[in-house]
């Protein structure tokens, strides 16, 4: 992994994007904040802590899935990927560079949800590190998925729409903004194959929002860890790095 490239690309694509169009950062937060507001109103504040944890998961997952639109544009329009192919930079460096750039771009949202989590006593000294590891693995897994799928998209106009659709489906249907115990075990166990489900179950358990067994905590964490490794390997190994 080339640290100099990661730093340069993070500044180039992350920091410069914030300077050029900060309004897009606010747009990026609109859906999670709207869901937080609706959940607060509908449940009269009872589920607001679930909405905060879900919002943090949603921001991190959107980071990864939004790579689809970014990567398609950089591959087909600006041809940046063609330039990188001609260098010693590989797909793993490219994935990590875009992941860090998008993380920097969405850092205002991450900071906002961390502040809300502290205000509502969701975060404490005991669960902060496990939750940080959880959302980092989620970012890693979704970024890898985004990179692989982006390499298959044939035209720029499909990239952003596909990214938005995938992000909405994988953050609204799984138990991200509501307790996973609302679903029968026969349903949420198969949904563990989705990284957002595994992350949500672990997050809800580690923050004591749901009374979760140690076994379920370990299973959800291991599933997310294995998915992160597997999806990263698949994206590097089987994605289309060089154009035919």
Automatic annotation (TrEMBL):
<keyword id="KW-0472">Membrane</keyword>
<feature type="transmembrane region" description="Helical">
    <location>
        <begin position="131"/>
        <end position="152"/>
    </location>
</feature>
<keyword id="KW-1133">Transmembrane helix</keyword>
<feature type="transmembrane region" description="Helical">
    <location>
        <begin position="216"/>
        <end position="236"/>
    </location>
</feature>
<feature type="transmembrane region" description="Helical">
    <location>
        <begin position="187"/>
        <end position="210"/>
    </location>
</feature>
<keyword id="KW-0812">Transmembrane</keyword>
<feature type="transmembrane region" description="Helical">
    <location>
        <begin position="50"/>
        <end position="74"/>
    </location>
</feature>
<feature type="transmembrane region" description="Helical">
    <location>
        <begin position="94"/>
        <end position="119"/>
    </location>
</feature>
<feature type="transmembrane region" description="Helical">
    <location>
        <begin position="26"/>
        <end position="43"/>
    </location>
</feature>
<protein>
    <submittedName>
        <fullName>Putative ABC transporter, permease protein</fullName>
    </submittedName>
</protein>
<feature type="transmembrane region" description="Helical">
    <location>
        <begin position="158"/>
        <end position="180"/>
    </location>
</feature>
<dbReference type="InterPro" id="IPR051784">
    <property type="entry name" value="Nod_factor_ABC_transporter"/>
</dbReference>
